[in-house]
Amino acid sequence: MTTQTLGKDNLSNTPDIDGEKNLGGLGGLSGLENTPELNGVAGDLVQDPDLEARRQFTYEAGEKLKRRVDWHLLPLLILAYLVKNMDGNVVSYVKVMNSGKSTNVLKELDISTDQWADMSTIFTVFFFIFEIPSNLIIKWSTPRLHFVRIMGSWSIVVACTAAVKSMGGLFACRALLGAFEAGLYPGILYQLACWYRPDEIAIRMSALGLLGQFSGIIDALLAFAYIDGKGGLSGWRWCYLILGLLGFVVTLLIFLFLPDWPDSPPSRRQFLTPEEGTFFAARLPPNSARSTDLNFDWGAIKKELKSPILYGFALIQMLFASGVTGLSFWLPTVIAGFGLTSTANSQLLNIPPALPTATPRR
């Protein structure tokens, strides 16, 4: 039977769906089963476990549940992203910290300005190399353990940076930092895709990017603090030590409280009942990632690699990252070079440019 045969006359003779505008409460399924033209289609709907799970919650209950998931998931992911930005960008602030003094990082480690620029390149190269391999691991692990692994690793590297004695040691720490930080942002995107529908992700990524920009403000305040010489350590060493300890604290919070997947065992998402977890997983599109999906669909990967949309987004991201990375790395040096105020106070002048990026706009 063609689609045209299933016309308005056929459906209007089905009392259970007469006037039904959508499947909301699915009250018309019994009528569908008794309609010869739809026999079999309704049976598939009734036997669909995802559809049955969605029927257990009203729209209002689903929205309330979604807000509860937001409060248990987003704050921890935002904290992780904030710390990642702080650890990666503080290098630009410590460069001008105590400029002209023996405790300046360039003086202590005997590094030229050109060598300092090379250090940024090393970080980016290792970040690029390890981004995909790092996120392949999440398929055989869980988001919680994945983030704990990479955050714990880079927090160790950041803390150890406070102890380097040479240019080679600093370069090695920057390379390792790039390798370990590479998996965070794609991992966050992957976990959000496991919890939210595509139309729900954009607003949450906006919140992530918005609050993540506070890293520049915090780094500037940390570099401004009068901590040089305390405990016999240079100010730049204190910056790395403090950020390393902060990273360990956030890592512990993620280990204790970050949920894995909607369909994880209840012990890994204690704020949801089994029915709520099943509902949240059932509301996702069929191609969403699941905790039980441990294999790769190479056919889908090849298809995406042929899509011009993919390369369009890649170009946009590349242009965006080029501007943001260059600005974040060199802005403190440029501002300090103006000589408008003392080196310490020039750190505070990095805050106004960061404020617009951390301000919500419509």
Class by helix and strand content? mainly alpha
Proportion of residues in helical segments: 55-70%
**Residue fraction in strands:** under 5%
Q: Distance N terminus to C terminus? A: 50 Å
Radius of gyration: 26 Å
- The CATH topology of the largest domain, please? Growth Hormone, Chain: A
Shape: elongated
Query: What's the CATH superfamily of the largest domain, by name?
Result: MFS general substrate transporter like domains
CATH class of the largest domain: Mainly Alpha
Q: Average pLDDT, to the nearest integer?
A: 78
- The unreliable regions are 1-47
Q: So, CATH architecture of the largest domain? A: Up-down Bundle
Number of helices in the DSSP assignment:
18
Keywords: Membrane, Transmembrane, Transmembrane helix, Transport
Domain Major facilitator superfamily (MFS) profile: 73-362
Biased composition (Polar residues): 1-15
Main location: membrane
SSE arrangement:
Blueprint: H1 8-12, H2 29-33, H3 41-47, H4 49-54, H5 59-96, H6 105-109, H7 113-136, H8 143-161, H9 167-181, H10 184-195, H11 198-212, H12 214-224, H13 235-257, H14 274-282, H15 298-305, H16 308-337, H17 343-348, H18 351-357
Helix pairs in contact: 5-11, 5-12, 5-13, 5-16, 7-9, 8-9, 8-10, 8-13, 12-18
